[in-house]
Amino acid sequence: MSVSSSLRRVAAAAVSPIKTFRRSRALGKAYKRSQALSEQGREAEAIAYAETALELTVEAVGPDDGHTAARLNDLAELHRSLRDYAAAEPLYRQALATFEKVLGPEHPDVAEVLNNLASLHRERGDPDMAEPLFRRALGIFEKTLGSDHTDVAVSLYNLAKIYEARGVEALAESFYRRAIAIWERGQDPEDPGLVSWLRDYARLLRRTERIDLARSMEARAAAIEGKSR
């Protein structure tokens, strides 16, 4: 499961509220084409359409609007998927600032972008920058969505990987266990997205010499994977 898999509210910000604007049809086409190309793994081609969608959104609703922030995030996600972090980071920061201005600092959409920006820092090897962003996102999700929401699980998983990489094994284990438990309660316990979480947790268990429990997690992951084929 990718870090961006929980990005539902932001990525799904519909263009329908601005249909009354003259350029809404072109905007809708650019947005849908960008999304389609991205889903096909053609992110480099999708960027031009995402840029068009952003430009038309700004023309339609202005720079200080949630739809503009959503399109900024879309474009940042494409650049991050291509590991063009220099291009992605300022777009995330602009999206974050816009969402904070429009929705307030503790809205779930703010947390979504915080998660994405934190993932960028983690991917380029800067966990010290990633951790406080992940923690802030976790706090917002817990406050606004409740402690058993799947977005909370994703944030816990992100933090578990940070702490595991740092060797803070007890904290990493606690976060892995909480993330898995929340996900199982909120989703199908045989969801294929759980496979990587179980294997990451098993890796940590092996490192701390709890082999039997590690084998149990690995067997669960293999069983889920087998059923999904």
Report on the structure:
- This protein is 75% helix and 0% strand.
- The N terminus is likely disordered.
- It has ten helices and no strands.
- Helix 3 runs antiparallel to helix 4 and helix 9 packs antiparallel against helix 10.
- The protein is globular and about 60 Å long.
- It has two domains: 136 residues, Serine Threonine Protein Phosphatase 5, Tetratricopeptide repeat (Alpha Horseshoe), CATH 1.25.40.10; 84 residues, Serine Threonine Protein Phosphatase 5, Tetratricopeptide repeat.
- The protein has 229 residues and is mainly alpha-helical.
Question: What descriptors fit this protein?
Answer:
2 domains, 229 residues, Serine Threonine Protein Phosphatase 5, Tetratricopeptide repeat, 75% helix, disordered N terminus, mainly alpha, 10 helices
Task: Set out the fold topology.
Layout: H1 24-39, H2 43-61, H3 66-81, H4 85-103, H5 108-123, H6 127-145, H7 150-166, H8 169-186, H9 195-207, H10 211-228
Oligomer: single chain
Count of folded domains: 2
Helical/strand content category: mainly alpha
Cα shape: globular
Which H/E pattern describes the elements?
A: HHHHHHHHHH
- Spatial separation of the terminal alpha carbons: 16 Å
- How many individual helices? 10
Main sheet record: none
Number of strands: 0
Low-confidence stretches: 1-8, 10-19
CATH homologous group name of the largest domain:
Tetratricopeptide repeat domain
Give helix % range. Answer: over 70%
**Highest-level CATH class of the largest domain:** Mainly Alpha
CATH topology term of the largest domain: Serine Threonine Protein Phosphatase 5, Tetratricopeptide repeat
- How big a fraction of the residues is strand? under 5%
CATH architectural group of the largest domain: Alpha Horseshoe
The whole-angstrom Rg is 19 Å
Average of per-residue pLDDT values = 89
